[in-house]
Design brief:
10 helices, 271 residues, 20% strand, single chain
Length: 271
């Protein structure tokens, strides 16, 4: 099998914009200021003058999901965002998050030399009340879960990545770069809310190919009261979805026990 080689022109940041986030401009600045500059676009199902002006200010192509403008869901928004990118590699940049200057350089560098890459994902930090933190309990646990996938020769192990996913979703969604040509046509399936990314990783984990792990902190995930993750954790939606995901790997009684302890860990998302 031929080894893959990618360049900056093969990658797109597609900023998935929703509403009127006070943090989106910081996100834009982080993706256009990469040490290895790639393509950047903005996609939305909630068009507004605010988003249009930001796109014009930074000379970013702006796409409106007309089909879902009045009936949007996360899966449809993300699928649309992927479809708007015309490159082989796509990162869905979440509007509240920040990307370190070497994100694209490191991700593309790790993709190079692979045989059939499916996704790449990086380590990450969190931004809480304006302060970047990397060593809180939740992040330490996720690094332990991801530890077996550090070696390059483990990236293609379907057994190992499914074992990792069977204990929870340690992969940070906004850190993920997709290779659509090697993935299902519909990357995200409507229905889930908080677990939509974990559901996708579970499906992808069955495929032949590589889960490329970049073991460096290359993006910062913002935790704030208005975030979708925080809202779901504070309700019951995430708990039920997590249980359903654990049932894909375990008998229901074991899944219930794991879900109980997993929820304790997710509580650290609360400010």
């Amino acid at each position: 099998m031929n080894k893959q080689f990618f360049t900056a022109q093969d990658h797109t940041f597609t900023i998935c914009a929703y509403g009127q986030s006070e943090y989106i401009e910081e996100c834009i600045k982080s993706v256009i200021s990469q040490s290895l500059q790639t393509n950047v676009i903005m996609c939305t199902s909630t068009p507004s003058e605010y988003l249009e002006l930001l796109a014009k200010k930074y000379d970013i192509p702006y796409y409106i999901n007309e089909e879902k403008k009045f009936n949007s869901d996360i899966a449809s928004d993300w699928n649309f965002a992927i479809s708007c990118a015309k490159t082989r590699l796509v990162t869905i940049a979440h509007q509240d998050d920040l990307y370190k200057a070497d994100f694209t350089k490191e991700v593309i560098g790790h993709f190079n030399g692979t045989d059939r890459p499916l996704i790449a994902y990086t380590d990450y930090a969190e931004l809480r009340n304006g302060r970047e933190v990397a060593n809180i309990r939740n992040l330490k646990i996720k690094r332990i879960m991801l530890f077996p996938l550090r070696p390059r020769f483990m990236w293609s192990s379907r057994f190992m990545r499914r074992r990792m996913l069977s204990l929870g979703s340690a992969i940070c969604c906004p850190s993920v770069t997709y290779v659509p040509e090697n993935l299902p046509k519909q990357l995200f399936i409507p229905g889930y809310k908080g677990g939509i990314d974990w559901q996708a990783w579970e499906r992808f984990s069955k495929l032949k190919g590589e889960f490329v792990f970049v073991n460096n902190i290359l993006m910062v995930h913002r935790i704030h009261d208005d975030s979708e993750t925080t809202a779901l954790i504070n309700g019951n939606t995430r708990t039920q979805e997590d249980f359903e995901m654990f049932c894909k790997f375990w008998p229901r009684w074991i899944a219930r026990i794991i879900e109980h302890f997993y929820k304790k860990g997710e509580d650290s998302n609360e400010l």
